[in-house]
Amino acid sequence: MTLHRHARRAALVLGAASAVLATTLVAPAHAHLRTARTLPAVTPTAETAPLFDDEEGGNGDADDPAIWRNEADPARSLVIATAKEGGLRVYGLAAEELQAVPAPAGPGPDDAPGRFNNVDLVPRMALSGGRADIAVVTDRGNDRLRFYRIDRDRPRGPLTDVTDPAAPPVFSKNQAEINEQRTAYGLATWTDRATRRSYALVSRRHDTSVALLELTAGAGGTVGYRTVRTLTLPSSFRLPDGTSWTPCAEPGELPQVEGMVVDPANGMLYAGQEDVGIWRVRADLTSRPTLIDKVREYGVPAVYDEQTEECAAGADPGFGGRRLSADVEGLTLIEEPDGDGYLMASSQGDDTFAFYDRETGDANEYEAGLRITARTGGPDGSEECDGAAALNQPLGPDYPRGLLVVQDGHDTPHDGERGATGFKFVDLGRVLDRIED
User: What is the value of pTM for the model shown?
Assistant: First the structure.
């Protein structure tokens, strides 16, 4: 998310708040902030070293994590995370860095460089040389998927690039389009239990498109993909008063999707349209999408100001949700052995996390909210969280009840002019205890 986009979101919320106070149509504008502060909280057990999005820091910008479980030795499991133009980082469970993988350059000196946005895993994928666990990454800079074989004991680091050199752009027709950066963005992987075929669902930056790509095994143990179909989510919405609403953005930009996750039990994709809410649709993209929750800002009229690069918001008509503040990001699934569990979403606008019932039969109803806050003398909390990953399985003595990893958009006390970000490691058992109290 760019800095001006943060400013736009703040202007939208504050502008709407002022209008609401003036007209007294609904509750006080900052009532949701007071509610957020009263949510239960947990503190991190560990944090990664800060990443700095500048030349000195290698343009590292933390975004999205995935958790790989070492079945032979769970205490030696890994967290694989994106750092945008800074490539990938691989961490051990003490949040220590084990490997840094650079993003590839663009094909020419004037072309966009590689920029790793989201990451997910495909376990036991059938390759030409046998099965392997694969990390899949959206390379937003080059509009491609990248693939990395995971080998915990490889001397030079756990990840090896196994991307098919012939892998095509996901959305763009040519390099000129790639350089415009309406490219591969959000990501979720899915293996169809009936066919055992593996797929990646990929969203497009500044667009409402989601593509279903089948992952294919190539020569020499490489991985490629082919497009199966594409779904276009709405960009404008009919409101209960009969008017039409489109989320405010720069001219030519549509309300994009980033956070996505697939429930392996029923093959349902959950997709976070940042300024709209959370959609549920079949992972094969053959069903009609259902909006299971909306952001609070849903329906708020706003006009983009080209001089300030911000949106001036009008009065809130009261059609939005109550649990999420834009942007909605960082969707992850918390599975439980009995089939229960939660869909967790980052409510980026108020630094909270929302938990929904995993079961579609209960309409994915809201269950609880949570904050991740600073520990005295230890790591700080999570603010403006982009990506999140949860694994509800034992991971050695430090995480016997599983692990939650969340991105921190403002890694204090480091955050300042250099713009520090990082990842927080949280005991998942403590999270479940708090939300189930």
Answer: 0.92
